[in-house]
Amino acid sequence: MPTGNLTIVQFLIASIIKIALFLFVLLTGVAYTVWLERKVVGHIQNRWGPTRVGPFGLLQPLADGLKFIFKEDLTPPYVHRFLYILAPMLSLITALISISLIPVGDTITIRGITTPIQITDTNISLLIILGVTSIGVYGVALAGWSSNSKYSMLGSLRASAQMVSYEVALGLSLVGVLMLTGSFSLRKIVEAQSGWFWHWNVFGGFQIVAFFIYLCAAYAETNRIPFDLPEAETELVAGYHTEYSSMKFAMFFMAEYANMVTVACLASILFLGGYSGPKFEAFLPPILSSLMPVIWFLARVVFFLFVYIWVRGTLPRFRYDQLMAFSWKFLLPLALANIMLTGLWVALRA
Amino acid sequence: MVHLVLFIIFGVICVAGAVNLLVQRHPIDSALSLVVVMGALAGLYLLLGAEFLAAIQVIVYAGAVMVLFVFTIMLLNAGMEERTRGSKVALMFGAPGLVIGSVLLAWILLQSKPSVRPVGVGSLYGSARTIGHLLFKDFLLPFEITSVLILIAIMGAVVLARRESQ
Q1: ipTM of this model?
Q2: Single pTM value for the model
């Protein structure tokens, strides 16, 4: 029975509840990642960040959202209208799809119904996430071209070339983890790292080099500093989203932060052990103890987001030719060497 | 039953995308229709049970090769096709010819005995492990020769695109 030991109706209801919950948490998380970034970058730059709107500026994302809704939605003349409207939708859709495959916790049992805390699990989950990232490049490429503006066009060409180049390094850096686990399914990758922290892939699996490559490639995929030349304000006005206003711009904005959250989730699953951690079954009632893995997972994700924002506040940006050379001449050979060494170790271990 | 419905859906999307590719006047719209065709093909591979191939189809074909197509169209600033006035003679002979040709082809194909057995849903072994075994054990020589072929193509492209050193 593909639905486990649940009936079809129970499975459907559980899935609908999980989808609604995950989407709500993801979108709220995206909004508050913006808040976190403004606060942390502010403190790095020795200033406060948003403090006025609500305690500690916590209602700032709400104010920003209202501002986006009330702004004028302007469509410049001579744009290719179908692609102009399609591009931010593509970006946002591909950014939000990946959450459906991420295992946030172990199983949870409510009223006798046992369900994994994950919307769905397939045996090619990791490949699906890579495929969805590849389709996300179209959002950027088409946005710049359809805007009929030279700044947008140049920005989008640079951004898409950068994203396509770093996808190669990203994919290859994951091969080491896959060889150690033997499966593309994200849940199995987490289960292979269960135990104490020396079982995690970055320590016990010796994937520290792959972790570094993954982080660099992920920063480049999400167009974040130090790889954010396509969005650099002093160079290209605003890059591929120059001609977008109001909700369409907000969609690009949300897509960028949702990609950050997805990358952070993937990094914690593949390298830092996912949701593994002590469950305190002796001290807590069953529902709370099955929520403990969720808390461990969220702790890792927030840690990654903090590192993302920390790097953003600290490093200068790469020049474009340095950026491309870094991907093709440094990260790619390093990833291949990592694959060969990991393959050798797996073959000798067996 | 569900599989038949899914096959019909993916098949219709695939054919509609292909027809749209021919009908559209701007090359970028045609390229995006081709991306839709690739996506529908990936769905058909999934129905056959070749899950790894479906994912790779999306990652490599729809996500990298077609992006390069779109780049080229954007960089070359290819404009809309001009609509020339078609000739009446072509329409008079072409349309019945097309109908007769396709009917003839369909009749011949339905008459001949199928030389391979029909492929059912999920009948291929599509896991990465099986494909790995096939590529690296049974078909190792064709795999290595194909990689040399691709290397030759890359070198040819580099030579052609190289700036002439004065």
Answers
A1: 0.86
A2: 0.88
- A3 in a domain, yes or no? no
Q: Cβ of B51 and A145 within 8 Å?
A: no
A93 has a chain B CB within 8 A of its CB = no
Q: Determine, for residues B51 and A124 on separate chains, whether the beta-carbon distance falls below 8 Å.
A: yes
Q: Residue A131: closest CA among chain B residues belongs to which residue?
A: B59
Residue numbers of A between 112 and 151 with CB closer than 8 Å to B = 122-124, 127-128, 130-131, 133-135, 137-138, 141-142, 145
Domain coordinates in residue numbering, chain B: 1-79, 137-166
Please tell me the distance from the alpha carbon of residue A126 to that of residue A101, in angstroms, as a whole number.
8
Which A residues, 145 through 184, put their C-beta within 8 Å of a C-beta on chain B? 145, 153, 157, 160-161, 164, 167, 171, 184
Would A134 be classed as within a structural domain? yes
Instruction: Please report whether residue A1 resides in a domain.
Output: no
Q: Please, are residues A213 and A169 in contact by the beta-carbon 8 Å criterion? A: yes
- A160, A220 Cβ separation under 8 angstroms: no
- Domain B1-79 of CATH type 1.20.120.1200: yes
- Report the C-alpha gap between B106 and B102 in whole angstroms: 6
Please count the other Cβ atoms lying within 10 Å of the Cβ belonging to residue B107: 10
CA angle A326, B68, B147 (to 5 degrees): 75
- Please tell me if residue A84 touches chain B, with a CB cutoff of 8 Å: no
Digit-coded pLDDT (tens) for B82-138: 777 777 777 788 888 889 999 999 888 888 776 666 666 666 677 888 888 888 898
B147/A contact by beta carbon, under 8 A: no
Query: Within a domain: residue A2?
Result: no
Split into its structural domains, chain A has a count of: 1
Question: In whole angstroms, what is the distance from residue A37 CA to residue A305 CA?
Answer: 9
